[in-house]
Design brief:
There is one protein chain. With 135 residues, this protein is mostly helical. It is 30% helix and 7% strand. The protein is built from four helices and three strands; from the N terminus they run αββααβα. The longest helix has 18 residues, at 2-19. The chain starts with a helix and ends in a 25-residue tail after the last helix. The model is unreliable at 4-22 and 115-135 (pLDDT under 50).
Length: 135
């Protein structure tokens, strides 16, 4: 009986841990991906603002990064920069049309994902390696 009670107690303690391990994976090139974009050899991005957005000045200037974020977040960047780990550096926001029409096909070609672009029709959802917008 003690063994059974111990087993049940162990299962009850482990259950929340197992449930917390569930996640969603969204890959670069998918319509719902928001986060850092490595421009690499891609054509130059079309930007939301011509100058980088800086929330917090730092003594040594970090190089700017390129991000794709929902439109409401770029307009109120100070509130959202922490979620992207980008409050202490200059940020350029890329336009959605450039991301879908230029960057996504380039990225997929470079990384062996084929040349197709799903433009939001739901193909390939959850089959990527990136975990949302955390970097």
């Amino acid at each position: 009986m003690k063994t059974l009670m111990g087993l049940i107690a162990t299962m009850l303690v482990a259950a929340p841990t197992l449930a917390a391990d569930v996640g969603v994976s969204i890959s670069i090139g998918e319509p719902n991906f928001y986060g850092r974009i490595d421009i690499g050899g891609a054509p130059p991005p079309v930007l939301v603002y011509s100058q980088p957005v800086v929330v917090m000045q730092v003594p040594q200037a970090a190089p700017p990064i390129y991000l794709r974020v929902p439109p409401d977040q770029s307009g109120n960047w100070k509130q959202y920069c922490g979620a992207y780990g980008a409050c202490d550096r200059p940020v350029y926001f890329v336009q959605d049309s450039w991301y879908h029409d230029v960057y996504t096909p380039h990225y997929r070609k470079q990384h062996g994902h084929g040349g197709g672009d799903d433009h939001g029709n739901g193909k390939n959802k959850g089959k990527g390696h990136d975990k949302g917008h955390k970097n």
